[in-house]
């Protein structure tokens, strides 16, 4: 078979080359010849493989479908270990971050296994420092103890401080004494606030509990505030059902409201799961509707409007392929222990949108076969179809897989896992479309040739079948592209306008893109109509003076020897502009005031006095802050912590700076370091759950730039290899860059910021953006004529498939436009922009550019140069040089079929 496709053997003398003068022109000719030979060999190899695959599938379509289905089913077995992870540190924090070991240490030494319910009580333009308001707040407090589930109340669930349930609120300063609170006057309230700046129960600065407009008298005493917070803290139980029921009851009570308080906003531990992840899971029902919409579109696009040539089962098999790809993606990824996170709920929509593109390319090629090819038997006809469409489908699929694969190497686990799932899904789609979907074409062609009904296959129509007026052989889109759109687009004035408009749009996109801002905040993923979203925004509005709450943890220090270092460190922290004034709550400072440390003469005395202090009336509130190695004397300090609040920062990037500045103060304090694996580096370190978000924001932008850059480079390299022409690949790549610039620009206009979800989508967009241009670029290279005609014929041949693919991708997720999920809305916006700009650059800009400066088509056998100066090297022998159709001419088909038949024997 190879000999039938080869060019003539070389006849010149091998020794002539060494004596022949190599001029620059000849060097250029040799280089071009090498590129042409490589290009032709790649194209021929792919076409030959796809032809043989199509020949086998066309011969055994049912066997192919059954075998592929069984293999996908086996892959799906991996889902038996399916588990969804929602832990923030496993999803969003780079695993190389120092925070990972710090969290492990904190969870071990000071387990923060607590749950909470927080109420924000607001009196807009009204004063909360009144007897009526505090009585209403007391009603909330008392009612919380009345809820009982499974014979357990809040008293059984609560975290205790000084033997009392920990409830943080203004009522602390009256020690929750109902009799006292019920008889307060406004004067009593103000006097108590003036005389008690720090809560005797928890040591909290009382002013941090006040929000909204705060007014003070001439002496600096608070006389007016609009809002306050009350928070119930519970210990986390192994069985969380009772706590969940209590939180639900508290949420219902807050939403119902209570007399004396204008408005109450609530947030609990369960709120994000209910309102954030919950709405994502609810919107999965849109996937079924998306499948129905895409199926209807595919059915209308692929078939004709008659009972014989409709493609009902072909369309169903197309949807079946997408379902199998989803199963393979989830099954293999789960088997490989790749974490599943809620953002992966978007993956089925992605595969639904992407999968249909390849089907349209294959179907468009099937319909555009030459009259001679249409007369072939079914196996050969399918082989020819795949040999024509296979290269184009491979270009787009491989670039998608490469782009997603690059994203899998990112440091953010949630982004990495999404890209792994997506890569496996796209690969499965590529294989399934080339096998199962192609098999359905063979079966459908058998049905069509036998005259059986498109829906009721057992019913055979009378022959010859009479087609109705609506069932035309002509493709509406082909007519539009060939007779109207293409000729209009390729007029010189229109070309000039297209180039000017494209460059202007790219410039505008760059200008807006550089204004994109980074901000990752999980609360953005709360539905805008949820109570949790309202709580978050009210807290930002009324408690806008407070930043992140944090703690400084210290291990087993010699606190006696390090007291000067500790005191200096605490002073530097208190004086830092990144720490809210008066927010540092330190047991060490309180102990100094209780007992002058100058009177302590040894570590044993220091520890004994500290132990007594923690059991005194004044020091009891600091008892949770220090852990001793024993419950009785003699003791030593095992670990301790101090609490504080960062000053409010203007955005997430400044939150990262605030975190790093606090870490810098502690790291440079002169304290010793831990020794051992899986331990924090320093004996003292700052830690907060909100630092997880900071750690994500710290690397998010650099990871995005890295992923986009690597994805773009790999996509270009793959495009060069598979399109096998440097200049055409470069033009396709320019279209991809312009598309990405325009997408980033429109996202900034829409107010979308760079976070994990948008980073995922932008990384994926590189692979998707190449689809629309690569099909046009590859088809352009397969047509022999002048540039203008080749551009026009490319639009006619593949333009309808590209347009239908883009439209089907849009229809796959159009229902997400009204989703209550922020993530799904962002998915819709990003992918809509990719489809719109991708189609524009693929169907408008690229044909114009190709018509002006496009490369020469792939070499045909008759065009192969025989001059000895065209050789690549002295050892070069016969090189197969064929055009896009050479491998499927009639004679070659017979040879390939013969080889195929012999191999089976």
How would you describe what is shown here?
This protein has 905 residues and is an alpha+beta fold. Helices cover 58% and strands 8% of the residues. It contains 31 helices and 15 strands. The strands form five sheets. Strands 1, 6, 7, 10 and 11 form a five-stranded antiparallel beta sheet that branches. Strands 13-14-12-15 form a four-stranded antiparallel beta sheet. A two-stranded antiparallel ribbon has the order 2-3. Strand 2 (148-149) and strand 3 (152-153) form a beta hairpin. The chain is elongated and about 105 Å long. Residues 1-20 and 860-905 have low confidence and may be disordered. It comes from Biomphalaria glabrata. Residues 1-13 have a biased composition (Low complexity).
Jot down its keywords.
five-stranded antiparallel sheet, four-stranded antiparallel sheet, disordered N terminus, disordered C terminus, 905 residues, alpha+beta
In short:
The protein is an alpha+beta fold and 905 residues long. 58% of the residues lie in helices and 8% in strands.
Structural class: alpha+beta
- Beta-strand percent range: 5-15%
- The N- to C-terminal Cα distance equals 17 Å
User: How helical, in percent, are the residues?
Assistant: 55-70%
The coarse overall form would be elongated
Radius of gyration: 35 Å
Instruction: Report the uncertain regions.
Output: 1-20, 860-905
Compute the average pLDDT: 83
Main pleated sheet = 5 strands, antiparallel
Secondary structure tally, helices: 31
β-strand number: 15
Organism: Biomphalaria glabrata (Bloodfluke planorb)
Region (Disordered): 1-23
Protein name: Protein patched homolog 3-like isoform X2
Domain SSD: 283-443, 724-852
